[in-house]
Amino acid sequence: MAASLACLSSSAKFGAPWSPFNRHGIHNLPPPQLVPLASSMEIYITRSFLRRRRCLKNISALETSDGAVNVEVDEDDDDEEEACELVNGTEVSVDGVEGYLLTAVKNNNGTGLLLLSDVFGFQDSATRDFAYRVACNGYNVLVPDLFRGDPWSKNRPKSEYEEWRRKQDPDRIRKDTTSFTKWMVEEFAAAGISKKLGVMGFCFGGGRVVDVLATDENDYFSTGVSFYGTRIDSAVAGDVKVPVLFVSGDRDPLCEVKGLYEIKEKIGERSKVVMYEGRGHGFVHRPETAEDDRDAEEAFALMRNWLHHHLI
């Protein structure tokens, strides 16, 4: 977050620009650079944006007083496209665990988001695509390697999945996410920025959103967003003190509707469950059909408004 927070510090008149990363020997952050994506990943992101823009332009999703969601389509998306050209990215290492950071340059709002990936890991193109889009909306998005170099791969036999899953120690993951959270907090504090953070995740990471918020003893986070979280520990849901947005599809066998509503009730009335009819697992960050695209865009707009309401 070196360059972006330095610019924020200056533009917000907190003082002269500074480089926060010289202070931490254990945080190995190379100089910031343009998003270091492989050419294949750049092509994937470009095609993803173009494919969605062909289907629809800029969608806005507004929640009404009765809990319904009104969707509007704006044909003029030039501002968003221009802003998306100004996103910096860099690899990071926190206490020996890798991750990557995407920061908005032109429209940085000074707010940080911890994004927890699905089982395919932090380097997966779909995860980076989504993180890039979120950064385009002004955020500093930090994505840790939850699996320490051993993500699940589609090339591995499905019969090995449960064994692989058992190796993903919840305590270790909790420790790593805590380290990344404190890292962000320290850099924001050094920049003179006091805004709280948000946490979001998909699938495996969506389930861990509840874990992170339930153990947030220092109240670092103001909100969370869980996209079709798997194996959510409902026993700790009552310890979550901030509102959470849960998004899923009613045809998702890995994230049952009934379970989400039960977790939502334990957290409190400020949280919300949004269920998309006919959608299966992963439709927001891995859309496969035109219908998936449409609902993915609406869910993204809903998430964007939710984050703005609770963080900005």
Automatic annotation (TrEMBL):
It comes from the Eukaryota. Residues 98-310 form the Dienelactone hydrolase domain. Its main location: cytoplasm. Keywords: Cytoplasm, Hydrolase. Pfam families: DLH (PF01738). InterPro entries: AB_hydrolase_fold (IPR029058), CMBL (IPR042946), Dienelactn_hydro (IPR002925). It is found in: Cytoplasm, Cytosol. The keyword Kinase does not apply. The keyword Ion transport does not apply. Belongs to the dienelactone hydrolase family. This is Carboxymethylenebutenolidase homolog.
